[in-house]
Each structure stands twice: as C-alpha cells, then as structure tokens.
C-alpha cells in the first residue's frame, strides 16, 4: 500500500495545458521550486523556431518502402529496464517514384527512449515500442508508456499485452477503422485481462513486489498513454497522468489531459458514480489514488475507470516530434521546456559529448544515422533534466521523430 | 574475564580509530590531488594515464579501508556495527556499519544533476562544454540504472538477512538463558551461583550471533566496495575523478559537521548554533 502512495503522490499539476489550477500545497511548493531553478531562465536559450519550411504538398516525393526482416523483433535491450533504442534501418528504396505528399510512411520510425528508476527504490514504469506492429499495415507504429502504482505488475502486463490487443482490434475491425472505438475497446480488454489475471493469479510466476499474494492486488494499477502513429495521423489514447505532447513548429501541443481527481469533469464523474475525492496529500479518489483513471485498481471501480480519452491529430509538415512520458518527467519539466529540449536535440548537428568517445560507451549507433541518435539524445537529456530537477518518481521518456525527409 | 574483554575492546577501538584517522588524512590528500587533476582536461595520452592511475589508487585506498575493517571486525564485530569513531550524525545515516550502497547512485545523480544544471544553457545552444558527470551518455545512464536496480535488490536482501539476525536477540536460547540467569540472581542468596559457568553459557549463546553479524557486515562491506568499483567502471577517467571528489567531500564534510554537532552537545549547548547566535 505504501507503494501506492509513493507512486501516486505527485498530486499536482504542471504549468502547461491544464484546465485546473494546482490545488495542493505540495504542488504549489513544487512549482515554486521549479521556478527557482537556475536554468529555467536558460530555457529561453532554446532557439526560436526558424520559419517553417515550405509545404511540400504536390511535390513529388520518393516513396520509401521498407522491408523488415521476417523476424523483426522490436529493438529492445534488457527487460525494459532501460532502453535506448534505435531501430536498425533495413530499407530498400523503390525506384518507382510516386506522388504522395501525405506520406511519412516508413516502417522504421525514428525514436529514442529512456526509462530509469531514478530517485526511487522501486521501478514501476514500463515502456513498449513496437514499430510496424500490425501486419495489415506496416506503417502503423505503437508507442506506450505505463506508470504503475502499488506494484509494477499491471504496468508490465500492459507493456506485454496492450500492443497485441490493439493490433487485434485493428485487424478485426471493418474497413473504415474507427480509432476512438478501437482504442476504447482495447483499453477495456486490457483492463479486463488484468482483472481476470489478478483473480486467477497466485500461481503466477511473477516476481513482483506484491507477489500477488493478497487481495491488495486490487490496489495495483497503471497509467497508460498509447500513441499509434500512422503516416498521416497520431492517435493518442490516455488513461491516467502520463502524458503525450506534440512538438509542432517549436510549440508544445498537449495531446492528452492528465486524469486528476480534481479535474472538474472528472470530479463530477466520480461524484456522480458515488465516489468521493478527498484531499490527502493532493486530491485523491477516496483519499487513495491521485489519478482518476487507470488500468487495474479494481477496488476503486467504478470511480476510477479505464476508459481512455482519445485524441486524433492530423500530422503536418510542421511537426517536430512526439514526446510520451511518465509524470516523473512532467512533474518537473514543463511541456514547453520538453519540446524546446527535444527540438534542439533533433536539429542540432550533434554537440557530441566527449563521453561518447569513451571506450566504455558502446551502445549507441556506430552505423546508425544521426536522427535516431538525436531522438535518443533527446530522451536522455530530458531524463537527465528530470533527475537533475529531483523528480521523485521513475522517469520514462519516449521521443518519436515526426519530421519528413530527415 | 570482563576486564579482558574491555581491554580487548579498547585496543581494537584504538587501533581502528588510529587507522581511521590516518585513512581520513590520506583521503584528504587524495581529494587535493583529484581536484588538481580535475582542473585541466586531459589533452594527451600521458595525462589520461595519469588520471586513470590516480583513480586506481583512490579506489585501492577504499579497498585498503575495507580490508582493515574486516580484519578488525574479526576481533570485535560489535564495535564495527556501532563505531565510536564516527559522529552521531553519521551514525544516523549508517546502514549495517557503513554507508548505504545505493547512496553511491544518489551521489552520482546529485552531482550529475548539478553539473548538468551548470552547463545547461551552453548545452542547449549546442556548444561543446566541459566534460564531467553532467554528460553521462545514454549507455552510461543505462548502466547506472542497471547497477542501481541490482544494488537495491542486493541491499534489500542483506537488509532482510539483518532483520532475521536481529530477531535472534529473542530466540529461545537467549530467552531461556535470560530467565535462568534472572532466576539465579533472585535466588542469589540461597544457591551459590556458578559465575564462571554462567559466563561461559552467555558467551556460547551470544557467540553464534556475533558470527552472524560478522557475516552480514562482510556482505554489506562487499556490496559497498562492489558498488563503488562498478560505478567507477562506468565512468571515463575524468568523470571518475569528479565522482571521487564528490564522494570524498561528502564523507569528510559530513564527518566534520557531525563531530562539531557532537561537541556542541557535549559542551552542554543544546540546539542550533544559529538560534544560539540570535538569542
């Protein structure tokens, strides 16, 4: 139970894109601390955006078709504990040229991801990245960040299963795919799997902290922020207080709104269902959980629901990148700062840190191209920034490059 | 027997105390060398080798400390678990007779955060900056994270072992013996107490417990040393120098602050020097 409080006690809101003012003392305190930080001022150093490139519509563009190896495992290193992945590009360019101005289609998206335990003693974040996760359409890519509370097993289960469920839902749906319905169905199924699995568990081989021994298993849950990136759209489905932010032409556009119990519409929904929000180290459902939606958390149903809010955003030529992260980042780094940092990394012609040349440093791309490295740099710098600002939670950051022709 | 034990205690204490004081002085000397070394980025092979050698010798100095500690623990484990040569402040932070292994990672994150913060504006403008702990590379951070998880797990395991060991204070043997001795004390007049037999019995009941503590302290010290070695391995020589500086500064200053606090306490001064100044 203690873990649950730990995982959820970030009770406040960050500066950006919030309908609700932070109400808890701790949130206010934290905000002040953030403002005191010396390098907030230097955020201004993020270069102003240069004028947007001319729209490419109508221009001929070489279509790149990608052939993935028959068994193309997602590029993962070690158990999701920490990953900083780049996908081996395995592309074969077609000679045929096509007019296709609405294409960002590649089956090897560029992304970087970092997920660390940080200042906490328990790792409850999980990240799943599955490029070309649907056989029917190699241009659909899946990115998910899950921030568990109470224990890590719900987050781990989401990591293992969510993309498979979404894939099935996509493949089973009719020709005109309705994203909102598809994603909502997927989240419902994910939640049900957790419930079924928890009640059947005990025999499970899981090695997590709670060991699924007690009825408290119902007190374990996870946030889920899932991005399906298609050639022309970004579909964000969110449940909980992890967040997706789009960086477009230098500015930050939040693609999800955190599910906090004191968000007016969420508060109304909870109270209508007969639940209460109690202020105990921030607003908490029944005084317990500091978010109003989550996968799992059986004992807080029906006040805490697993239904995601789905945002569909059309991609444009101005898009820089997409950032998905757990509240370990967002608690201490504003949307704008995060976008500034990510954009700087994507655009910079590598201020290579000398550490990279160190012989111990082997992981990052000798053959790879710079933009994946740039995404990795972005995710790592954001993570280090969160650690430097003493984020008390695990920190997981995924940066997906959305630019064309890079 | 009691006097012999006391004498032995004193001797061990004095020896290790002396060793500790000497070690601290050496640590301070190393700190000066590390600081000098950190002031100039190595520009050639010779300088790099110098840094590597310096790092190596500082790590060896830590190894020496644990070797000595283990030797003295053999003689008096209890003293090692509540060391009188450290201050009350340090003792409050003690984990099984020493620093908590995961603290090494927190030390890194703190120092790395401060150094990142110091050069963030340059970094964000894409400028090449001074190489230090602020620019941990992706693979370095990944290895640190991995080390952290491993260390937390091992730390938890040892903590659990320690819990079991401490519960033995009330095992059947000890409880029975405490009752028998109490009874003998109550009946003192009536029955002639066989003091020597009693002491032997106490010794034989406590001895395995002390052995148990010794094993746990060894494991804890091994983990401390292993964590230190592993984290140093992750760094470039320059970064290792920065880390060792931070470690020495933290140790030496906390020790001094703690000693000063204890002294004030001893001199009858209660409370904080600042509040005393104000009154």
From TrEMBL, chain A:
PROSITE patterns given in the database record: PPM_1 (PS01032), PPM_2 (PS51746)
Cofactor(s) recorded in Swiss-Prot or TrEMBL: Mg(2+); Mn(2+)
GO BP field: negative regulation of abscisic acid-activated signaling pathway
An annotated Gene Ontology molecular function: metal ion binding
Superkingdom field: Eukaryota
Region of interest (Disordered), residue spans: 1-62
Catalytic EC class: hydrolase
Biased composition (Pro residues): 47-56
Domain PPM-type phosphatase, first and last residues per copy: 110-402
SUPFAM superfamilies membership: PP2C-like (SSF81606)
Pfam family, any one: PP2C
EC number(s) on file: 3.1.3.16
Record key words, sorted: Hydrolase, Magnesium, Manganese, Metal-binding, Protein phosphatase
UniProt family annotation: Belongs to the PP2C family.
Protein name per the record: protein-serine/threonine phosphatase
Native source species: Cinchona calisaya
Upper classification of the organism: Eukaryota, Viridiplantae, Streptophyta, Embryophyta, Tracheophyta
Automatic annotation (TrEMBL), chain B:
InterPro entries: Seed_Dev/Stress_Resp_Reg (IPR051886), TGA_domain (IPR025422)
Segments forming domain DOG1: 13-264
Composition bias type Basic and acidic residues, residue spans: 184-198
Region annotated Disordered, chain positions: 184-209
Residue ranges of the TM segments: none
Organism superkingdom: Eukaryota
Protein name: DOG1 domain-containing protein
Organism (species): Cinchona calisaya
Taxonomic path: Eukaryota, Viridiplantae, Streptophyta, Embryophyta, Tracheophyta
């Amino acid at each position: 139970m203690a873990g649950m409080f730990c995982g959820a006690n970030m009770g406040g809101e960050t500066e950006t894109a919030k309908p609700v003012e932070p109400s808890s003392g701790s949130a206010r305190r934290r905000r002040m601390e953030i403002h005191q930080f010396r390098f907030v001022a230097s955020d201004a150093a993020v270069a102003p955006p240069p004028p947007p490139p001319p729209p490419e519509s109508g221009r001929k563009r070489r279509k790149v078709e990608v052939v993935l190896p028959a068994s193309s495992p997602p590029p993962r290193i070690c158990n999701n504990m920490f990953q900083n992945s780049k996908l081996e590009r395995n592309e074969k360019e077609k000679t045929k040229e096509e007019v296709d101005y609405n294409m960002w289609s590649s089956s090897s998206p560029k992304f970087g991801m970092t997920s660390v335990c940080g200042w906490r003693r328990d790792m409850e974040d999980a990240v799943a990245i599955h490029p070309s996760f649907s056989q029917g359409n190699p241009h659909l890519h899946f990115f998910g960040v899950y921030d568990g509370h109470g224990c890590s097993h719900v987050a781990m289960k989401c990591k293992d299963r969510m993309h498979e469920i979404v894939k099935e839902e996509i493949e089973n749906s009719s020709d005109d795919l309705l994203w909102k319905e598809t994603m909502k169905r997927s989240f419902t199924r994910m939640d049900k799997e957790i419930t079924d699995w928890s009640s059947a568990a005990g025999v499970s081989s899981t090695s997590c902290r709670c060991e699924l021994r007690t009825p408290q298993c119902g007190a374990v849950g996870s946030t889920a922020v899932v991005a399906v990136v298609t050639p022309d759209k970004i579909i964000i489905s969110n449940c909980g207080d992890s967040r997706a932010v789009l960086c477009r032409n230098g500015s930050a556009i939040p693609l999800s709104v955190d599910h906090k119990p004191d968000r007016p519409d969420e508060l109304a929904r909870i109270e209508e269902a007969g639940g209460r929000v109690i202020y105990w180290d921030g607003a908490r459902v029944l005084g317990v959980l500091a978010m109003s939606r989550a996968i799992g958390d059986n004992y807080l149903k029906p006040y805490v629901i697993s239904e995601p809010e789905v945002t569909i955003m059309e991609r444009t030529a101005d898009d820089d990148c997409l950032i998905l992260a757990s509240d370990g980042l967002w608690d201490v780094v504003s949307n704008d700062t995060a976008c500034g940092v990510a954009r700087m990394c994507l655009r910079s012609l590598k201020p290579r840190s000398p550490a990279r040349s160190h012989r111990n440093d082997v992981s990052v791309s000798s053959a790879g191209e710079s933009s994946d490295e740039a995404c990795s740099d972005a995710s790592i710098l954001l993570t280090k920034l969160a650690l430097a600002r003493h984020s008390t939670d695990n920190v997981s950051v995924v940066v997906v490059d959305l630019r064309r022709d890079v | 027997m009691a006097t012999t034990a006391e004498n032995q205690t004193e001797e061990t204490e004095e020896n290790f105390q002396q060793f500790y004081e000497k070690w601290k002085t050496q640590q301070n000397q190393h700190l000066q060398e590390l600081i000098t070394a950190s002031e100039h980025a190595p520009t050639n092979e010779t300088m790099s080798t110098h840094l590597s050698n310096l790092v190596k010798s500082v790590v060896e100095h830590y190894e020496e400390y644990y070797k000595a500690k283990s030797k003295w623990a053999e003689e008096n484990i209890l003293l090692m678990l509540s060391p009188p040569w450290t201050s009350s402040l340090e003792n409050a932070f003690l984990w099984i007779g020493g620093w908590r292994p995961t603290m090494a990672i927190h030390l890194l994150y703190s120092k790395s955060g401060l150094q990142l913060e110091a050069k963030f504006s340059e970094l964000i403008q894409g400028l090449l900056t001074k190489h230090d702990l602020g620019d941990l590379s992706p693979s370095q951070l990944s290895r640190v994270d991995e080390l952290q998880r491993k260390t937390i797990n091992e730390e938890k395991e040892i903590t659990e072992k320690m819990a079991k060991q401490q519960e033995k204070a009330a095992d059947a043997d000890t409880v029975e013996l405490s009752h028998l001795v109490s009874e003998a004390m109550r009946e003192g007049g009536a029955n002639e107490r066989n003091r020597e037999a009693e002491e032997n019995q106490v010794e034989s009941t406590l001895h395995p417990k002390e052995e148990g503590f010794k094993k746990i302290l060894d494991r804890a010290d091994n983990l401390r040393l292993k964590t230190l070695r592993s984290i140093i391995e992750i760094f470039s020589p320059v970064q290792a120098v920065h880390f060792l500086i931070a470690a020495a500064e933290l140790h030496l200053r906390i020790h001094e602050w703690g000693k000063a606090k204890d002294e004030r306490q001893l001199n009858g001064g209660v409370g904080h020097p600042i509040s005393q100044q104000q009154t």
